[in-house]
Design goal:
Elements (H helix, E strand, L loop, with lengths): L1 E5 L10 H5 L4 H4 L2 H6 L3 H8 L7 H15 L5 E5 L6 H15 L5 E7 L2 H16 L2 H6 L4 E4 L3 E4 L2 E7 L14 E4 L7 H8 L9 E6 L7 H15 L1
Parallel strand pairs: 2-8, 3-6, 3-7, 7-8
Antiparallel strand pairs: 1-2, 4-5, 5-6
Helix pairs in contact: 5-6, 6-7
């Protein structure tokens, strides 16, 4: 697994973790075990994802993504996993953690995949299964809900799973927490630029490109080259 991230000054400004948790019911935050669970995605994975705990190479990019989201940094990440290395599991647990943390403050994540079925639907179902585990289910006030077949909601927070196939009806969505291109090597750059990139244009949302690199002409390869150039300039 390799990852690259570059940060830009965000229009929303920095947001510390306390700002998010200040909207949680005081009684729930008095539980020190609960505070630990929702304080760090690595702790959350180890303690709440019974039998599915992430490995260090998965937790590292998950922590960087969560930090960018919670502090409003608007960073862009390219994360490359080898096949069967747990890319989708890392994404599902990162989304579960963010939805649980944001259930009282709200926020929207958008996850694009090359097709809705099977790819986006499989990712949606994996997230629902992780949120249904005992510890996340206890944390989610009112439980996790599936709306209109493509949106997973926890309280005021949601993750929407959309197809990035040419001609798919994905316009008009907004991502203010996280915008993800999953299997980015199979998403056409022109589709991403026209349909998905504008979803985060006014929100400074963190953007993540996930996948495997098999050609220099793909969306993922393009983003990796862009981030590498940004790092050289810093």
């Amino acid at each position: 697994m390799t990852s690259r991230g570059v940060g830009e000054s965000g229009s929303r400004g920095g947001e510390e973790n306390g700002g998010v948790l200040s909207d949680w019911p005081t009684g729930r935050l008095a539980d020190s075990a609960l505070r630990r669970l929702i304080g760090d995605v690595g702790t959350f994975s180890r303690a709440a994802m019974e039998g599915y705990g992430l490995r260090p190479y998965q937790i590292e990019p998950a922590r960087a993504i969560v930090e960018s989201v919670e502090r409003g940094l608007g960073r862009s990440f390219a994360v490359v996993f080898s096949r069967q290395a747990g890319k989708d599991e890392a994404l599902a647990q990162t989304l579960a953690f963010l939805l649980l943390r944001r259930q009282f403050t709200g926020g929207e994540a958008v996850v694009a995949a090359p097709t809705f079925r099977p790819q986006a639907a499989l990712m949606r179902d994996r997230l629902l299964r992780r949120l249904a585990l005992p510890a996340p289910a206890k944390l989610a006030i009112g439980g996790a809900r599936l709306r209109e077949g493509y949106a997973v909601e926890v309280g005021l927070a949601s993750a929407r799973f959309l197809s990035a196939a040419p001609g798919a009806n994905a316009r008009g969505q907004t991502a203010d927490l996280l915008l993800v291109a999953n299997e980015a090597q199979d998403i056409r750059p022109e589709t991403w630029d026209a349909v998905f990139d504008p979803m985060a244009a006014s929100t400074n949302a963190t953007t993540v490109f996930l996948g495997t690199v098999w050609s220099t002409e793909t969306l993922l390869a393009r983003q990796m080259a862009f981030l590498a150039a940004q790092e050289r300039e810093d």
